[in-house]
Design a protein that fits this description.
The protein is mainly alpha-helical. The chain has helices at about 10-35, 40, 45-50, 60-65, 65-90, 95-115, 130-145, 150-170, 180-185.
């Protein structure tokens, strides 16, 4: 441990986390470009068709949403708040472990509940469900890694799930036609 109480390798891990985040965003842009090339070739025409009207949040839309969507949103926001706290705090303490287990439960609940949210694709799974599957498989693996003393593997897995399974998936929640788009922008 360093003199200020943080993990010694935390500085190097931050750069690795930023690299992973950049890779995740780049992969998402590439997937969107392949899935809908007209979006990039005719961006102005596409942007003109989107009803973009920023306004004060309309929380009544959340209240009217099905229970599984409300559970998903609460779980995701809980995981986001705890995840930010975990990223900023000292690792390996009792509080880190308690918050970590709470984060695992919130992420697991977010991932599992997303499997029941398929209205936007007419009942089919979408690309974002791949992130849910990755999280469902990765969470036990990351916990197993830290229980076996493989802290670096645990850190990489948890940072990847925070970046891809939470932040990247959260950005997809603001795609036109989805609930958070209508709450804030539509």
């Amino acid at each position: 441990m360093a003199s200020e109480g943080k993990s010694i390798s935390q500085g190097a891990e931050r750069w690795a986390s930023l690299r992973n985040a950049a890779f995740g965003v780049g992969a998402a842009v590439l997937i969107v470009a392949v899935a809908s090339p007209k979006l990039f070739t005719d961006f102005a025409g596409y942007a003109a068709r989107i009803p973009f009207h920023p306004h004060a949040p309309d929380l009544s839309r959340i209240a009217e949403a099905p229970a599984v969507i409300r559970l998903h949103l609460v779980s995701a926001l809980t995981a986001l708040a705890i995840g930010i706290a975990l990223m900023m705090r000292v690792k390996g303490t009792g509080l880190h472990k308690l918050l970590g287990w709470t984060w695992v439960l919130a992420m697991g609940s977010t991932a599992v509940s997303s499997l029941f949210i398929r209205e936007i694709n007419h009942g089919a799974f979408s690309f974002i469900h791949l992130l849910s599957g990755w999280t469902i498989v990765g969470l036990p693996g990351a916990v197993y890694a830290v229980k076996r003393g493989r802290v670096a593997a645990h850190r990489r897995a948890m940072t990847g799930m925070f970046t891809g399974g939470l932040l990247l998936a959260g950005l997809f929640a603001f795609i036109p036609g989805r609930l958070l788009w209508t709450v804030f922008l539509g």
